[in-house]
Design a protein that fits this description.
about 15% strand; 2 domains; Rossmann fold; about 35% helix; alpha/beta; 6-stranded mixed beta sheet; single chain; 11 helices
């Protein structure tokens, strides 16, 4: 876990000044693929929280930005990281300097792709590291060396994907907003922070189902560690179904693309492909398999929307 030292209590800004739409709306939809199994489907529209800090990006970044207390924020991601884009946008909106540590070779990423170009336009300073260094970024000596090289030794560090104890506590509100509104809450998982917090906020009798977008089978352990860091131990009822990652992070398939396009047409909802599409695809498949009892009310969390180029 990253240790940022003491947190200042005198903040020069308040992320709430950005006027997030909270609680985010819940929209019940009619879809015969669910209705014929006696299952009700609602969409938890976290994509409507803020036009630039979308969905779980707001819930995870806001507490970290508050804790940073105006210090430079350093975070990590790949060349197409939505987390880097959201952090850069937050820095611009709040007047906070940001540094993005990018996995990969700088020369190979020039000219910058649209995602990194947007980060740079929002004022984020990009620092590229090789993949071996990136894999060891949580090791204290490696992290210190990266921060020195990036001229950001006094920065507040947010881990890749934004998942740390502060973020998990911020995501607990997502579960609290859904208390009494659904039996099962389904969402896509990357680093596991949103699910860790969501499960903690649900009421007894409710459960969370995570659809990992990466393969590897490591996520359960990560979620348990995040809950321990945030709350001192396990919280809530949750499980994972790891069958719907389509080969790994940032990978899709023709079947997934066709499903997402169809869902967009059915429900007039832009479907982000790397996370949201996989969760909705997995949820639909599970319903067709009879995984949910008739009468079950499911809330699918729309954690984000496609970023504009």
């Amino acid at each position: 876990m990253f240790d940022n030292g003491p947190v200042t209590s005198s903040l020069p800004f308040d992320p709430a000044a950005l006027r997030p739409r909270l609680p985010s709306p819940v929209q019940e939809v009619r879809d015969e693929r669910f209705a014929r199994h006696g299952v009700r489907l609602s969409l938890k529209r976290d994509d409507l929280i803020h036009p630039e800090l979308i969905g779980n990006k707001w819930r995870k970044l806001a507490p970290n930005l508050a804790a940073a207390g105006g210090r430079t924020v350093v975070t990590f991601g790949g060349a197409y990281s939505n987390h880097l884009r959201a952090t850069a946008a937050a820095g611009r909106l709040l007047g906070v300097p940001t540094v993005g540590v990018v996995r990969g070779d700088e020369l190979a990423e020039r000219p910058l792709n649209p995602s990194l170009a947007r980060c740079a336009a929002d004022g984020m300073r990009l620092h590229f590291v090789d993949r071996s260094t990136y894999r060891r970024k949580a090791e204290p000596d490696t992290l210190a060396a990266v921060l020195r090289a990036a001229d950001a030794e006094d920065a507040y560090v947010v881990p890749e994907g934004g998942s740390n104890a502060a973020a998990v506590r911020g995501c607990r509100a997502l579960g609290e907003e859904l208390r009494g509104l659904a039996d099962v809450v389904v969402l896509a998982c990357g680093t596991g922070g949103t699910l860790a917090g969501l499960a903690a906020g649900l009421a007894p009798g409710q459960s969370a189902l995570g659809i990992p977008v990466l393969k590897g089978g490591f996520l359960g352990e990560e979620i348990r560690a995040l809950q321990t860091a945030a709350f001192g131990g396990p919280r809530g009822e949750w499980r994972l179904d790891e069958r719907f990652h389509c080969g790994g992070y940032a990978r899709t398939s023709p079947a997934l693309d066709a499903f997402a396009a169809d869902f967009e047409q059915r429900h007039a909802l832009p479907v982000e492909r790397l996370y949201v599409a996989k969760s909705l695809y997995g949820l639909t498949a599970l319903t067709e398999e009879g995984a949910f009892r008739p009468g079950t009310h499911i809330a699918a969390v729309i954690t984000g929307t496609p970023f504009p180029a």
